């Protein structure tokens, strides 16, 4: 942890947090780059460029507070098919130059970078840079920054089921023996804990096919702030909101009936 490197504003929010209840894994749907640019009469790509700055700033704050896992939805599989070709090409170049320009900072911040998604479908030159960045930062022990690239939650499940079925055939495992843990082992995220907190910027109340399996019990925080305006302090504010919630993991609150006798006292008329 490098709390002393937080800005005074970040430090003020951090000091309100309970250190024992910091999330282990924060996932973010980065949305609103296009609107950010549009509201300034700028071309959309300038919103993406500014969004890349937010990626850097938020990652560095995450590393300063010792957040172990940060997973950012960078390019969805569906969105990449729908965006104009020139914008997709720009995003690819932006990712490549982001990695080239930021590996040094990742080393300074002890950040390890990884990827999830059908990354083998990305342009070869981008894949080379991705691999170089992952290998260079592989031994860092601070925050693991995972970029979801060419990612879709349903296609992740398809890939997981393909892997699991192949394993079952190979090991002669009967379908009735499949467990949740078996599915987990075949997801792209097999090596990480599920997110505790999912943040979505730009006010949309949607999951957009992100980490569908993994967010079963995740707390969701939606902010109207557009991604290019999102900074480390907003990450800390989202964590503060998260800490004010009671997490139940599918369980119940403390107003449960304790015994059958207690239940007998309530003569419930259902008409
Ligand atoms: C949504 O904006 C955002 C994205 C396209 C994904 C995030 C991409 C970046 C932050 C660019 C750089 C990424 C890295 C990892 C360097 P949108 O175009 O959907 O916005 P809109 O909904 O306002 O149109």
Automatic annotation (TrEMBL):
InterPro entries: UPP_synth-like, UPP_synth-like_CS, UPP_synth-like_sf. Its EC number is 2.5.1.-. Keywords: Magnesium, Metal-binding, Transferase. Substrate binds at residues 32-36, 44, 48, 76-78, 83, 200, 206-208. The active site is at 31, 79 (proton acceptor). GO terms for molecular function: ditrans,polycis-polyprenyl diphosphate synthase [(2E,6E)-farnesyl diphosphate specific] activity; magnesium ion binding. One of its GO terms (biological process) is polyprenol biosynthetic process. Binds 2 magnesium ions per subunit. The keyword Metal-binding applies. Its cofactor is Mg(2+). Mg(2+) binds at residues 31, 219. Belongs to the UPP synthase family. Catalyzes the condensation of isopentenyl diphosphate (IPP) with allylic pyrophosphates generating different type of terpenoids. NCBIfam families: PRK14830.1, uppS. Homodimer. This is Isoprenyl transferase. It comes from Occallatibacter riparius. The lineage of its organism: Bacteria, Pseudomonadati, Acidobacteriota, Terriglobia, Terriglobales.
């Amino acid at each position: 942890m490098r709390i002393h490197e937080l800005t005074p504003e970040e430090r003020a929010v951090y000091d309100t947090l309970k250190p024992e209840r910091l999330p282990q894994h924060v996932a973010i749907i980065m949305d609103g780059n296009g609107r950010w640019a549009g509201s300034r009469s700028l071309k959309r790509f300038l919103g993406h460029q500014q969004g890349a700055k937010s990626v850097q700033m938020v990652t560095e704050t995450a590393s300063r507070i010792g957040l172990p896992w940060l997973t950012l939805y960078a390019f969805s599989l569906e969105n990449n098919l729908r965006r104009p070709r020139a914008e997709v090409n720009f995003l690819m170049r932006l990712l490549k130059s982001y990695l080239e320009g930021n590996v040094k900072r990742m080393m300074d911040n002890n950040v390890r970078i990884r990827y999830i998604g059908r990354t083998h479908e990305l342009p070869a030159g981008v894949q080379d840079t991705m691999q170089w960045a992952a290998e260079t930062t592989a031994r860092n022990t601070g925050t693991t920054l995972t970029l979801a690239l060419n990612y879709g939650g349903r296609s992740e499940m398809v890939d997981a089921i393909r892997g699991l079925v192949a394993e079952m055939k190979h090991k002669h495992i009967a379908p009735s023996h499949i467990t949740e843990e078996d599915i987990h082992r075949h997801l792209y995220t097999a090596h990480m804990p599920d997110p505790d907190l999912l943040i979505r910027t730009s006010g949309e109340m949607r999951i957009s096919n992100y980490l569908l399996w993994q967010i079963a019990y995740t707390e969701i925080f939606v902010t109207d702030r557009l991604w290019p305006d999102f900074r480390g302090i907003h990450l800390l504010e989202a964590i503060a909101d998260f800490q004010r919630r009671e997490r139940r993991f599918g369980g119940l609150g403390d107003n449960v009936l304790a015994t059958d006798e207690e239940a007998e006292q309530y003569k419930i008329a259902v008409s």
